[in-house]
Amino acid sequence: MPAAVLVLLVLAAVAVDASLAFLGEREVANAAAAASNDAAGAALRDSDFYRQGRVVIDPALAEAVARRSVDARGERYLHDIHVDVETDGDRVRVIVSGRVDYLFAAAIPGAPRHADVQAAATATAERDG
After folding, report:
1. Do 95 and 32 meet the contact criterion of CB atoms below 8 Å apart?
2. How many folded domains does the chain comprise?
3. Domain limits at 50?
4. pTM for the predicted model, two decimal places
């Protein structure tokens, strides 16, 4: 009977750690989606828009906006968060990566101590009309 309890505890620990990794994946996916949307809307190059009617994203401004968007989320359990921003005309792609520390993995010999998570999202700025 005590062995069965130990096995159940280990399985529960693995389930909790897997849930943390999944939650981390969802958080970076949400952060990337929000950051790309923010950058596509706020990083338009005014000179191109008002003079030529073209929608062009300013790469430097897009990177600043995307980083601020991700930083504002204030994730408590994500560490080593990196934000990469790529622009191409009216499109911006944001890649967010980070690390999620496992809660119970330290008790299992040879188990990884963290999960690396990454997600990317692309947004396109469009001119209406």
Report:
1. yes
2. 1
3. 2-124
4. 0.85
